[in-house]
Amino acid sequence: MPPASERPGMTSFEGFRCTDCARTVAGDGATRCPDCEGTLDATYDLSEGIDRETFKSRADGWKHRELLPFVPEGIGEGATPLVEAPRLTEELGVGRVLIKNEAHNPTGTVTDRGLALVAEAAVRSGADTLALPTTGDGGQSAAAYAARAGLLSRSFVPSRATFINKAMINVHGGDMRVVEGRFDDAKAAYEAEREELPAADEETWFPAAPFDSPFRHEGTKPIYYEIVEALEWTAPDAVVVPVGHGATIAGIWKGAQEFEDIGAVSGTPQLYAAQPDGCAPVVEAIESREDPEPWEYPDTVVGSLEVPDPAGGLPAVEAVRASGGAGVAVDDQDLLDSAATVAQHEGLEVSVACGTAAAGAWELADRDAFDPDDTVVVLNTATGNKDADIVRSRLMSQGI
Ligand SMILES: [Zn+2]
Question: 396 CA to middle of ligand 1, Å?
């Protein structure tokens, strides 16, 4: 099969460009810049007459194929619902609050979108194994998509990863190394093992962590395209995004710029990065107007956001700055309460990462960040049942 860029009518994809040294890289299986190890980003020719009409008549999760490097086979990811949240709307004092519910993805998380592309890229590059350090959800997704694509997966997870993540990595047939400690310990174990791989090893690893290839953040762009279409081709005023590695918020911002560039929608939203105050390197960088620095003593109940030195820290900070948004850090008790409040007021089961974004939205409303008629989207990254134990513990500590 010819490269995707040579298949007529499929995509306006041009190639990948290093965000550090601007070198361009061709091929469907790109990882990092061969010259400087910098992050690669997909580029497109957006002058080819793509507009909202291009997408309107299609229904699947990868229907924005002109804005993707290629379309993966997938197992039903994307096309997630945007759900009205009437009681939150009233409580926040804005025009409308909606929850973009990524729990509807195949393994129940937003990470499925990126891993669908990563698995396809790995197959096209001839690799046989998806390998990554992961806070948990990414490993579960990698195990699922590797299984589907006939690849192996190797996940390095910290001991604190959720029971569901560990169990389902096993259920999908993935290899898992549980590393005592936190995400950075898992990452160190991954890097050590990668160093030891002989050049002609039986196993060829394709790096599946965010920003180790251009595909994880690229795969999250459709979140924004879908929001715009659900809002009848208008841009929301604000999107509140929980931030760990930074891939999701970076992808949403890229998607927002592309949709404005092709004239599918007028304007872009303000993006708000929400993090737990026990690990908030992106929020701290936004507030100090500096580049992100590694967080020295990460400590939060939100394992999926406990990423002290995020690979996408700078793109996340730049996305927020360019959008005119802000950062917001919330404490663990508040974010657990907020996850329970969303469940109790709206019926939606959300992750504690979404609880972080919801608590952030309340804090932003208190700061008068929103106008009374604003449309505010809060991103739910994962199913609530992955975090049921910690939210319930919080309720029990209150005698409930
Ligand atoms: Zn480079």
Answer: 51
